[in-house]
Structure to design on (305 residues):
């Protein structure tokens, strides 16, 4: 779905059943140079999203019928809308409702009666942040990286295009036992050092499997992982076949791409750290790179192809 074209203005979707609130919001936002769309109910908001993708959503928490929490959760379950920031509007000071809104996927909240200056400041910050994240995601997709971030409740916080291709956006569509295995793996990697984490092979409905390798945690606490189509050949063998590397160098690069240190790789392959250091230097030379990050990126592109 494409964003609305032919304008540089940011677009805000207002979702509220109060005509008075909508009138105030429209006046404040348009005075700040923002375009506005209006929905008087949660159902109406979801119908608008089929046609238009706004830069931000201002969402009333308590509405008749489908309340704001359910609307937010429904929106966030769809990957194409996952990056749209949602700010809750509520007349309730109860922290329980604030927490509920944030857990549903909201990024912020404002209390009624709305203070226009404060609202515009918050909207501006979140729109700018969302655009920066979207640009970064587009760059990530363009690089072919297969990365995914899991929340601790097993839902997908975000995924690159390649990871989405491998795993989909609904983990329930995987093999029935995959969810329980994934839940255990996420709990395990969230409580141990990255160097100790082991990859997980997740079976898909078609019988093939995807390997998930932990990359640690994001700043927001999500579990970051790299997804790659599981092959019968070991990763090291694949890399040595596709790249100008020896069999041993392919093994070293595969473990390097998994985030392992030279010391860890030496232990895994039963070699001395000095030998591993020499192999890493040779890998850098043969691939024409200067650091581990660049070497790992090349490995990722070949292992996920």
């Amino acid at each position: 779905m494409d964003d609305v074209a032919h304008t540089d203005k940011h677009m805000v979707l207002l979702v509220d059943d109060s005509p008075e609130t909508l009138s105030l919001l429209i006046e404040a936002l348009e005075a700040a140079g923002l375009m506005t769309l209006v929905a008087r109910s949660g159902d109406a908001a979801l119908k608008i999203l089929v046609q238009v993708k706004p830069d931000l959503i201002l969402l009333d928490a308590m509405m008749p019928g489908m309340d704001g929490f359910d609307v937010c959760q429904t929106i966030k379950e769809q990957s194409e809308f996952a990056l749209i920031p949602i700010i809750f509007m509520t007349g309730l000071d109860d922290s329980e409702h604030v927490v509920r809104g944030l857990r549903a996927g909201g990024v912020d909240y404002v209390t009624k009666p709305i203070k226009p200056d404060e609202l515009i400041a918050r909207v501006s910050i979140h729109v700018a942040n969302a655009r920066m994240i979207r640009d970064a995601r587009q760059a990530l997709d363009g690089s072919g990286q297969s990365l995914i971030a899991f929340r601790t409740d097993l839902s997908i916080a975000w995924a690159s295009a390649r990871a989405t291709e491998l795993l989909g956006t609904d983990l329930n569509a995987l093999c029935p036992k995959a969810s329980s295995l994934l839940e255990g793996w996420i709990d395990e990697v969230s409580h141990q050092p990255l160097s100790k984490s082991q990859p997980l092979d997740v079976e898909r409905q078609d019988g093939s499997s995807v390997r998930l390798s932990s990359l640690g945690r994001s700043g927001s606490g999500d579990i970051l992982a790299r997804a790659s189509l599981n092959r019968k050949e070991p990763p090291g063998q694949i890399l040595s076949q596709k790249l100008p590397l020896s069999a041993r160098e392919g093994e070293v690069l595969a473990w390097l791409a998994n985030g392992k240190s030279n010391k860890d790789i030496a232990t895994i392959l039963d070699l001395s750290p000095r030998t591993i250091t020499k192999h890493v230097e040779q890998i850098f030379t043969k691939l024409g790179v200067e650091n581990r990050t660049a070497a790992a990126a090349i490995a990722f592109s070949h292992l996920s192809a």
Notes: The chain is about 45% helix and 15% strand.
